[in-house]
Amino acid sequence: MLAASSLIALATCFTVFTPAHADTQQSQRFYDEGVQQLQSGNASAAVIQLRNAIQQDPANLKARQLLGQLYLRTGDAVSAEKELRRVFEAQRGDEVELQLAQALMMQRRYGDVFAVLSPQGATPELTQAKLVMSGQAYMGTGQIDDAESQFRAALETAPNLAEAKLGLARIDALRNRTDEARRSVDEVLATSPDNLEALLLSADIAFAGQRADDALASLNRAAALSPDNPRVLLPRARVRLQTGSINEAEKDVSRVLERTPRDVMARYMKASIQLIRGDANAARTTFQPIEGALADYPPALLLGGLIKFNTGQYAQAEASINRFLASAPDHVPARRTLAAIQLRSNNTLSAIEALKPLVADHPDDLIARQMLAGAYLRQGDMGNATAMFEELAKSPNRPMAARAKSTLGLLQASDAGSRDMPPETRRSVALVLDYIRNGEFAKAHETVDQLKTADADNPQLISLEAAIFAAEGDMGTAKSRLQAASALDPSMSEIANNLNLVDARMGNLDAVEKRLRDAVSANPGDEQAVLRLGQFLAQNQRLNEAEDTLESAASRHPNSITMRRILGELYERRDDKPKLLETAGQLRQIGNAQPEALKFAAVMYRAGGDPARAADALRVYAKAKPDDAEAQIALAQNLIAANRPEEARPVLEAIKAKDPASAVATLGLVDLALARNDADGALKLADGLRQANPIAAAQLRSSVLLRTNRVDEAIRAMEQALQATSDRQLALGLYGLRRDNGRMDQAVSGLEDWVKRNPDDVAARTVLADTYLTRQDLKQAEAHYDILVQARPGDPALLNNAAWIAHELGSPQALQYARRAHAAAPSAPEIADTLGWILVQSGETAEGVELLRSAAAGAPSNQDVQYHLAYALHATGAKDEAREILEKLGTDGKPFESREEAAELLATIGR
């Protein structure tokens, strides 16, 4: 990025034709004032003056170029492109070519870069800059060999050119030559320790290698050099999120948004943080305006799917998750989310079909196992449900095992210590527990209400009802129901435990602590009572007290695995690696008599930074439990982490010998093969899955080909697989491959063909419709949205998109769709905005203004919604109120889509 002085130097670069109607003198005055503001360090004021200069004289190219560069500096690539392209078209030159190319790169429009860069520059330095920019664009399109040739050509004339060296280092990193990449970066940093690009790449390499501490150290150095740079702050926020430092990550993201409110990646990360904090509606408001810009970014597809899932937009959630899985077919959380969507959509059979291979591929995924057990329960398959809950009851995960035992108690023999219930009632209670776990509270309430009609005073049912209210966040009602249940049966320990949970969430911590300490005093040898007290203290940041309580109890229980597991979690939270390793050693000793302890010892050794001892503990465990596939996988992973790949290989091969269809073992062997540059061996392993799982085999083969830079072969492999096996996952995978590698027309035509042959595939059709919408092909998008809203007539997001498209095309259906969307989601600001805007544009201003007021109140930071309200107010004659909104939009300097329209409307009111 050019410094302010370099930006200002553009003032003397232009001689252009000026239209007769332009006020060139006033434009020059505004331009000069903008330069002065920039020299004073006030970039926001400079932007306003430069806009004024352009408004007075649209042909003032020096103002446009300077404004474009300021937008680049603040990360507003869309606005930068608009200004710089006008300069480029009027007076093309090396500098504007490079600046426009940079704006395109920032928008991930790598293929468009080549159209704006001429091959030679006026100086050797400019030619080298173009070679580097071209190399970076080739990398963006996946043409790694071409990128390498560009970087090497730059180095031929400038052997020490850091940018070219770093480009080659990025290529080495992409080709899994991590050591070579790191060496190249270190060479640059040795001569230029303050090279920002080198520090950023160093952080990328460390983060990819799961060395978060090293990545954070590099990013902190970069932040010291460029404290407000989004390219530093956003990667640092990502690392901080990965390591659980949510508050610190939020600070980095906020700093970016303060300067560049439209920064797409910052808004993406803000939405991620909002979702992590449980505010899905806020995440949706943040994410929706940028969703189209990130349509080709797989992590954004996942985030969008999760937001839609958590706001009840199940059809679109399913489509987003399927699109994400096309690029990351073995992403476990996404596969689980897809199943959860299907469960909430009452599509239990599809959920079971999604979960069965997930559990087979990942036998250690207890959440997927629990979901599958619950799906069998919903389906009425009591045999499979009971068998899976029995497996979960043996899990080392204490909460999971406790829940499974509770469910088994309902499905099997009755508990002699509680009021008995008939088998059908017990199954219904088990279903309610599953509904709560999957967030289906309406179904849970409905089922409990039905049960209570026959047994209104049953304390178990009242306690169950309280659990639903607590899960919904209604703590007051939950507590009153638990108190009523306790009055009916004071001896039920479950009610006391649930009261503690509810009181804790309500902030009544003194009451909780008194109950817990009373329980320990009444029975000092009760391990569970001590554990509950220790966990309460830890959850409330009283870590020293928690440690003292648990360590004292552990000394009284020398063979307690559970006590040491909880202590290990506490030590890991405090990053106390010496105590982690010490506790792992204790578990290693306990493992001589109780082999199960060895698995937990391995986890602590790994967390303490000693994967070698983790592997050694798992070897001993494997001798005692040779059929534990999960432990064998963990053994191989620890051997790889300990840099002992040759020992890991036979472990993975043994798993494959027992289970040829094991995707986890196959993937591990593929990674080992690629690490030693054995691409043929990796492909052979992928093909070995073909008989047991042709879809996974095709995806893995394609992945190997991509990782070895054989894009054409990867696409052909997916094409052949889809011809052999007609499967949606393969169809979407082929779409994603073509899209991500610059073959968008093929991607769209292929998916169009799939939808024609599978007209009921709502998920694939939604992907296709969204693609047309992103490409602004509104007629094609409209055709598919019309079909989608018939298939999912109650989905507000689908209806809202259909309304917007119909309005843009002048279709009379727009208002009907918008009203249906608003009826389905009356509290959604963006949907109220669509309906209000359509009404105002149709002349129904009174109703439109009220809706737009509601939308503006619900989305105060959405400048486009605020502009719509101002427009509507102006249309009704409320010019002063409209002016107040428009002036606020203009003076805060924040860019937004309707910015120019807002400025023109304000000028109209002023006249």
UniProtKB/TrEMBL annotation:
Sequence ranges of the TPR repeats:
128-161
Q: Which UniProt keywords apply?
A: Repeat, Signal, TPR repeat
Q: Which domain of life is it from?
A: Bacteria
Q: Name one Pfam family in it.
A: TPR_19
- State the signal peptide span: 1-22
How is this protein named in the record?
PEP-CTERM system TPR-repeat protein PrsT
| Biological source species | Skermanella aerolata
